[in-house]
Amino acid sequence: MPTVEVTDLKDGDFLLDVREDEEWDAGHAEGALHIPMSEFVARYGELTEAAPQDGRVNVICRSGGRSAQVTMYLVQQGIDAVNVDGGMQVWQAAGRPVVTDGGAPGAVV
User: Fold this and answer.
1) Which of 15, 61, 68, 84 is catalytic?
2) Which run of H or of E encompasses 98?
3) I need a labelling partner for 71 at 20 to 30 A (CA). Which of 14, 44, 57, 101 fits?
4) Are 31 and 52 in contact (CB under 8 A)?
């Protein structure tokens, strides 16, 4: 399983959040693309349109389980994808900003 540590991510790296809507609404990384795992296959085209052509897709969920499954699917499709180790829980613990859609401070649930 290809993984990346939260601390190795740079501002501007492409981030795919696969948590469900209520988790996203509570708080997420600013600029992340949100496609819930439960809708991922049906919305796959949104990822291929938004992802950088020659860049890596960093996949994140709450703790790393769902994002690991999506990462493996993407790798099987030939996409350079990595699982963000520890997910949004580690993201928040590392002091990375978590925001709501309105830009207010958010929380990881």
Assistant:
1) 61
2) none
3) 101
4) no
Res 78: pLDDT: 94
Rounded CA separation 45/88 (Å): 24
- Residue from 100, 97, 89 nearest 24 by CA: 100
Q: Which residue type, as a one-letter code, is found at position 21? A: D
Average pLDDT over residues 55-84: 97
Q: Extract the tokens encoding 59.
A: 């996949």
What lies within 8 Å, CB to CB, of 34 at 6+ separation is 17, 19, 24, 28
Alpha-helical regions (H) of the chain: 21-26, 44-50, 65-76, 87-93
The pair of structure tokens assigned to 12 is 């501007």
pLDDT per position as a tens digit, 9-51: 999 999 999 999 999 999 999 999 999 999 999 999 999 999 9
How confident is the model at residue 101, as a pLDDT? Answer: 95
